[in-house]
Amino acid sequence: MYNDRDLEEFSNAYSLVKMLKMYPEFNENTLDVTFNKGEAFFRKDAHRYCYLVKKGYFKVNTMTEQGNQFLMLMEGGHIIFFPLYYSFVFNDLVATALEKAECLRIESKFLKKVIALEDPHNHVALQYLTQVSRRFYSSLALISLSSKQRIVYTLIELVDTFGRHTKASVIELPSFVNYDTIAEFARCSRSYTVSVLTTLRKQNVISSKKSGWTILNEKRLREEDHGQKNKLLRKK
Fold first, then answer.
1. 16 and 60 inside one domain
2. pTM
3. Number of helices (H) and strands (E), helices first, in the chain?
4. How far apart are CA 45 and CA 43, in angstroms?
5. Do residues 81 and 51 make contact, with C-beta atoms less than 8 angstroms apart?
6. pLDDT tens, residue by residue, 125-184
7. Which of 28, 57, 85, 172 is the most buried (most CB within 10 A)?
């Protein structure tokens, strides 16, 4: 059984890049790339390369005949579509930049070679699976919540994962947060999402301006009916 802190120490993004740079073929197997807002790449390409997010945010969706379904968010320091194994089951996954993002593109064969030699206990793979499983668990648990609960819970998830305290009780949310993204993440219609968020704004719980979204009263937000009995893992 691994301690979270120990696992993170061995498998964080800085340690991974440092490990890769030990090999002279690092430069020919990696490339710094920039994704503009809305640009995307697919899981089916993971057999060729994966991406280490250096800066910015991505959403991961599944695209099937039934439609486009949001699954999770990934931010700086995380690998998107780590090449654990090949499977057609997950080839419908797509990662889309929510804002301008900087990534290190890594050739999958090179990554697997280095990890096999330098990480025999699979710390990097375990850390990746831990991060992804937490996000999948959170996404699946939304099914048991009401529409309003999903919207409020989504806000709380954004606060706990990406929120930045600027004052004692004010929390700044990332620039990609707006009515459309919250509606998508909460799996609610835009009109209903606007209605719920408008009520929260009138109660001075949130502020939604062009300059950015902020939480003005975190305590009040957490007191909303967001399904405490379904409280989930909120660690990154």
1. yes
2. 0.82
3. 9, 12
4. 5
5. yes
6. 777 777 777 777 777 778 888 999 999 999 999 998 899 988 777 899 999 999 999 999
7. 57
